[in-house]
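Batch job 17 of 40 flagged for manual review because the log was empty.
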Amino acid sequence: MLSELPFGSFLSYAPRGDSKEARESRNFTYNLKEDRAFGDPPLPMSSILAQLLQEALDGLPFAAWLGPRVTLVPVPKSSLMKPGTLWVPQRLAHAMAKAGLGREALELT
């Protein structure tokens, strides 16, 4: 039986607050939730986040959890998903695998 579950977070979300950091946190989150594209050429936020994570990985305490031997599994939504619905964790998992942060991304049902 699992008695301990280690976890880590690359970014934090500030749902409240008026500071510049809180506003930027919300904007980043909203852009990620819609997987909006930015830049030239335009890249979806899931790919941008995967690149940022890959660039910062060596300095992160959970770096050993990612890499070419890891299978990434996106977390499903808490509600039923309709076909064709945007599933950002799936896009993020695939972008992370493409960036070398995992061997593959698998959706488990």
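Reviewer: the log was empty due to a logging misconfiguration, but the result itself is present. The radius of gyration is 15 Å. Unflagging and moving on to job 18.
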